[in-house]
Amino acid sequence: MSGSKRIVVITGGSKGIGRAICLRFAREGAGIIFVHYDPDDIKANETLGLLDKMGVEAKAKKLDVSSFGDVEEFFQEVIREFQRVDVLVNNAGITRDAFLMRMSEDQWDQALLVNLKGVFNFTKAATRSMIKVRSGRIINISSVVGQIGNIGQSNYAASKAGIMGFTKSVALELATRGITVNAVAPGFVDTEMTKNLPEKAREAFLSRIPMGRIGKPDEVAETVYWLASDSANYITGQVIHVNGGLYM
After folding, report:
1. Rg of the chain over all Cα atoms, to the nearest angstrom
2. Catalytic residues
3. How far does Cα 79 stand from its chain's mean position?
4. Which domains does the chain have, with CATH numbers?
5. Which of the two ends of the chain, N or C, has the fewest CB atoms closer than 10 A to its terminal CB?
């Protein structure tokens, strides 16, 4: 990858919002490195194919974002090969829905480990190289659920609310180092995750959205891209909601 290209690392980049973010950065010709944890490589290879058609250099790696050691090793490889990371997008996330009284310890732990610890692991690893050059953009994908809650998602809501607090704290720590840290909180977006919701649940969500429609992954990706651009140089520690008015 050329030294003049921005190097962008995206977690959960094989599909949905993550894929849209990969494709948006590819439009500027950035070098894309995304990680995923799909059972197979089908979606990752599809995304790599789309990026190849756009003429950008891209790499994919299957990685458990909740493993501190694996993430450390991954970033050592990235820095050895590309010398730096310019943009980090923490997008990887899972749901393990259940009513609190029925939620198992494992369901709670899995959601917090992937959704919140994963953000800690990647942010800690990426900031080392960013601090050296006193430059960088970190964008964390939270959720409207972290702000307003949702029945059956106490674990998911806790993890996404945690991302909001984490974002603000790390933004304070890194502001003098030339690094901005922000979060994007999508609402109800058309992804594989939301497609699996029961029809009644989808209708209930839609009835609460003033704009009357589901969001598109590209709309979230545009917000992420803007936060990583020079136009957002003076913005840090913010949570940008992209939800059609579901939360105001």
Report:
1. 17
2. 156
3. 20
4. 7-242 (3.40.50.720)
5. C
